[in-house]
Amino acid sequence: MSRRNKIALFLIILLGVSIFGYSLRDIKFNILIRDFTTIHQGWLWVAIICMLLYFLLEGLVVKIFVDARLGHYSFKSALRIPLIEQLFNGITPFSSGGQPAQLIAMLQSGIDGGRASSILLMKFIVYQAMIVINFLIALIIGFHYMVSKMSYLSLFVVFGFVIHFTVIIGLFLVMFWPQFTKRAMRLVMIPVRWFTKADRVNDWIVRLDTKIDLFYQESVQLIGQWKLLLKVIVITFFQLMCYYLVPYFIMLSLGYTHANIVMITCLHVLIVMVISIFPIPGGSGGAEYAFTVLFSSYITNSSKLVLAMLLWRLLTYYLGILAGMLALTVKPDKIKLKSEIEIK
């Protein structure tokens, strides 16, 4: 990690501790400890296992894509990719650092930059598509509840959906209509020329054209492998379900055994959509507030509500950051390309 990233990590942890401290301001410490000691550990372990499965399944997706396109990729190296993504998503605004960090991690395994970029984009497309589908289902089931609890938050939910939907449409345009995408990109570059030297803008256009062509070629090959694509879609669906179910199992661990699994899962989907549009890394502040407000009708005990929020945040956010830090210390295996395997 660079010095800048270490500073960002320190500030994120400091912010998290401050938010946790603020959340506990009206809670007696002895009551919080009592609630924690009476947790049903079995259900809490299920929540932890869900998060571990979330990481493992994304690593499996990486391995499937790389094995199909390039050669043999060890699961250790494949798992390292999403863990590093978790770390850099967690310490950068709008989770902007995850994609570049994954690319660097794949380059360390000897994967060509162009191929690595295409594989990551394919993974990202499937992931985004599944997020949009899950969100539409959650919107139908849980949006009315969110509006009744926090009408202003519903605007953030809709705005978050528009952003995700726009991203997936843009990626589909590159996949199926590259020439239109190139023309649109040139239109976007027109105002950029007002503030940047023409030579630099022309260089950007050439590079983007190359990336669009490469991505289109990779997309055509992937679509032709529909069985592979279907397998990745199914794995990604279960991966997201593992993540979305975490609050439900946390509630079960706190004794709320009559919680509606469908509604709780849908509310978590909506919260995740809200978090995605906050510029602060991890949506810190907004995530904790949205969770406590939306789940206050289900967890009426204030101490248990704060404890549920703390456990949820530790598992879905800080656990990924910790795992990513550990992944950085692991040396990746070099990929065995198909040509090398055939020679042997």
Automatic annotation (TrEMBL):
Locations listed in the record: Cell membrane
Keyword Transmembrane helix part of the UniProt annotation: yes
EC number: 2.3.2.3
Reaction(s) the record says it catalyses: L-lysyl-tRNA(Lys) + a 1,2-diacyl-sn-glycero-3-phospho-(1'-sn-glycerol) = a 1,2-diacyl-sn-glycero-3-phospho-1'-(3'-O-L-lysyl)-sn-glycerol + tRNA(Lys)
GO molecular function: phosphatidylglycerol lysyltransferase activity
Superkingdom, taxonomy of origin: Bacteria
Enzyme class: transferase
GO CC terms in record: plasma membrane
Ranges that cross the membrane: 7-24, 44-66, 124-146, 152-177, 228-250, 256-275, 305-328
Keywords, sorted A to Z: Antibiotic resistance, Cell membrane, Lipid metabolism, Membrane, Transferase, Transmembrane, Transmembrane helix
BP-aspect Gene Ontology terms: lipid metabolic process; response to antibiotic
Protein's membrane topology: Multi-pass membrane protein
Family named by the database record: Belongs to the LPG synthase family.
Function of the protein: Catalyzes the transfer of a lysyl group from L-lysyl-tRNA(Lys) to membrane-bound phosphatidylglycerol (PG), which produces lysylphosphatidylglycerol (LPG), a major component of the bacterial membrane with a positive net charge. LPG synthesis contributes to bacterial virulence as it is involved in the resistance mechanism against cationic antimicrobial peptides (CAMP) produces by the host's immune system (defensins, cathelicidins) and by the competing microorganisms.
Protein name as it appears in the record: Phosphatidylglycerol lysyltransferase
Native source species: Secundilactobacillus silagei JCM 19001
Gene: mprF
